[in-house]
Automatic annotation (TrEMBL):
Residues 121-135 have a biased composition (Acidic residues). Residues 105-140, 432-455 are annotated as: Disordered. The chain crosses the membrane at residues 7-22, 42-60, 175-194, 214-230, 237-256, 268-287, 299-317, 337-357, 364-384, 390-409. Pfam families: TPT (PF03151). This is Solute carrier family 35 member f5.
Length: 455
């Protein structure tokens, strides 16, 4: 299968996102362990707040400026457009009726004139001009047929235009969502997005990058579970098997971390990473519920998400400082460079490339590309930290990768669901038939017993 330039560029964007995410995780782990700047809440607050950089697009992007201007409400815009379309349709229907009536009148008048001429010619020269009259009638009939065909073609074209306009009327119109509604949606989703990143950063300070990456990859399965509960998605046998396989891999990775670590910190970090994946699953479902069938720009949404997080979540910095759970300290000049670099590249730029990857390939290919972070993180830990992995760890990571492949190729295995459902239905039918046969046998036996008693 030949790849187009768009597909190749989309795959290139996926690889960029994978390496950025793994590099960002390694940089965060370096800040927490080597530099001693263990501030997961502040880093999550700074990274999320920096999304508001997207809002500078309102200064340069003309479409964003127009969206801020006062336009007609949605209902009035829809009513005006539908009224104009309906008026055009009625005009075209009237034209079709006029064409049909005119063609009928012309055919009637031509028939009458033909009959009169034919009668006069018959009275004058009955025997001499029979052949000539027949030729004239044939020519006139041909002319009439051509006129009728042309009128029918014009009416058919108008009817096609009417049907197309009616189909466009039935289509849902994509109207730009007002800024106030975008702010409301981003404000409701911002806490889930923020705490998913906060728990992710917190787990990085307690466990390795490879373990964090593998366990965080289970977010798609939490998305599936919450999607079924909210009736956004449906279960299938392939999905259930992939969920069980993924959690089996997570258990293998967690057990390996617990054996190799001196204390329980790595195991607790794995649990916090699992919590981060669950919160991210909730965030993804909220995105589907809130942004479904709405024409909202991604940068605008992320810009207001960053702004709302920056405005609403700063009191928790004071609370953590007062309780001494995370003492507020401004980073040093070198650490500040790392923090800004991680926020710009690991959050703002990576999300932009992720959006390009989805647009130029497909959501399926982009989601499947997430599994590439698992071997890349393992290789990074091998070369950076000289870490050695046990067989249980490698087996668990392979289970997670295979689960990702299986759940993303769920449509390919849909025939398995149909076969299992058909087998279950056949078994139910057989059981019902056996029950009916047993009931009939019991009835016959009872009738025989009653007859013997009567005799």
């Amino acid at each position: 299968m030949a790849f187009s330039r768009k597909n190749c560029f989309g795959i290139f964007c996926i690889f960029i996102v994978v390496f950025i995410w793994v590099g960002s995780s390694e940089l965060m782990n370096y800040l927490f362990t080597s530099q001693g700047y263990d501030k997961p809440y502040f880093l999550a607050y700074f990274d999320t707040g920096l999304f508001s950089v997207y809002l500078f697009g309102f200064l340069f992007h003309p479409k964003w400026k127009r969206q801020c201007s006062k336009n007609c409400p949605k209902e009035t815009m829809k009513e005006i457009s539908s009224c104009i379309c309906c008026r055009n349709i009625k005009k075209k229907e009237i034209l079709i009726k006029k064409d049909e009536t005119e063609s009928e009148i012309e055919s009637i008048s031509t028939n009458e004139s033909e009959n009169e001429k034919f009668i006069e010619n018959e009275n004058e020269n009955e025997n001499e001009n029979e052949n000539e009259n027949e030729n004239e009638n044939q020519n006139q009939n041909q002319n009439e047929n051509q006129k009728l065909i042309e009128s029918n073609e014009s009416s058919d074209d108008l009817q096609k235009l009417i049907s197309l306009e009616r189909k466009e009327l039935e289509k849902p119109e994509k109207i730009k969502v007002p800024i106030a509604e975008i702010v409301k949606i981003s404000t409701t989703i911002a806490p889930f997005w923020f705490f998913a990143n906060y728990t992710f950063n917190l787990s990085l300070s307690l466990t390795d990058v490879s373990s964090n990456t593998i366990i965080s990859a289970t977010s798609s399965f939490f998305t599936l579970i919450f999607g079924v509960i909210i009736k956004v998605d449906q279960f299938s046998f392939a999905k259930i098997f992939s969920v069980l396989l993924c959690f089996g891999g997570v258990i293998c990775v967690s057990l390996s971390d617990r054996k190799n670590s001196s204390g329980n910190s790595s195991f607790i970090g794995d649990l916090i990473s699992l919590l981060s994946a669950a919160i991210y699953g909730i965030y993804t479902i909220m995105i589907k519920k809130k942004l479904d069938d709405k024409n909202i720009s991604g940068p605008i949404f992320f810009g207001f998400l960053g702004l709302s997080s920056f405005v609403l979540l700063w009191p928790f910095l004071l609370l953590l400082d007062l309780t001494k759970l995370e003492k507020f300290e401004f980073p040093t000049s070198m650490n500040l460079v790392y923090v800004v670099l991680n926020a710009l590249v690991g959050s703002v730029i990576s999300d932009y490339f992720w959006l390009l990857a989805v647009l130029f390939t497909s959501p399926l290919a982009a989601t499947l590309g997430l599994s590439l972070t698992l071997p890349v993180a393992m290789v990074a830990d091998i070369f950076i930290k000289s870490r050695k992995f046990s067989l249980i760890y490698i087996f668990g990571s392979l289970m997670v990768i295979f689960a990702f492949v299986l759940i993303n190729l769920n449509e390919k295995f849909s025939f398995i669901d149909h076969k299992i459902v058909s087998c279950c239905q056949k078994k139910k039918q057989k059981l019902n038939q056996n029950e009916n046969q047993n009931e009939n046998q019991n009835q016959n036996e009872n009738q025989n017993e009653n007859s013997t008693l009567i005799n």
